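Technical appendix A lists one of the benchmark inputs used to test multi-chain prediction within the project. The record comprises two sequence entries:
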Amino acid sequence: EAGVAQSPRYKIIEKRQSVAFWCNPISGHATLYWYQQILGQGPKLLIQFQNNGVVDDSQLPKDRFSAERLKGVDSTLKIQPAKLEDSAVYLCASSFAAGGQGEQFFGPGTRLTVL
Amino acid sequence: KNEVEQSPQNLTAQEGEFITINCSYSVGISALHWLQQHPGGGIVSLFMLSSGKKKHGRLIATINIQEKHSSLHITASHPRDSAVYICAVPGYNNNDMRFGAGTRLTVKP
């Protein structure tokens, strides 16, 4: 079974530039999560999708971050414009079951460095 | 107060030692997750447990729901066990997970 795919693996940009990350969840997983993990901290949920609908985006900085999952499969996360404090690993995860009860499968992450 | 607290933050051990990592949480839960994160960033789910104990190879996870505490044990530790171990529990609305800050384990040969 293929795992969660993410690209790119690494990205370096200058502040005020834009960047987009892509995630392809495990086939059949309805729930998709985007997490931000700053160095030395645990992952923080940015947004959760159930199929193509948003379940929770309360911690997403909506003035600069946006995410979509138009067909209920792949998802993109965009930052525009980026700030220095956005430097982090962005993790995508998916699960078959909705909610925190189900096991989540994580992608390899995208390491973003903002200069 | 963080919803999920892990200890220790950093742990260095010699190969072969018995390792214990602790996790305490403040919310009521139905399941707790232990995750492993290697330096490349990828996260792997180790255990999901709601009571008692689970064992997988050299890894053992226990949970005490009444005390809101879980432990992850590694027997006969090996340098390849070096990673960050993260404890996670469902959030208040059960829609997502809340993560501990992680325990960075280094096992020296």
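Chain A has a mean pLDDT of 91. Chain A touches chain B at residues 33, 37, 40-45, 48, 55-56, 89, 91, 93, 98-101, 103-109, 111 (CB under 8 Å). Comparable benchmark entries are summarised in Table A2.
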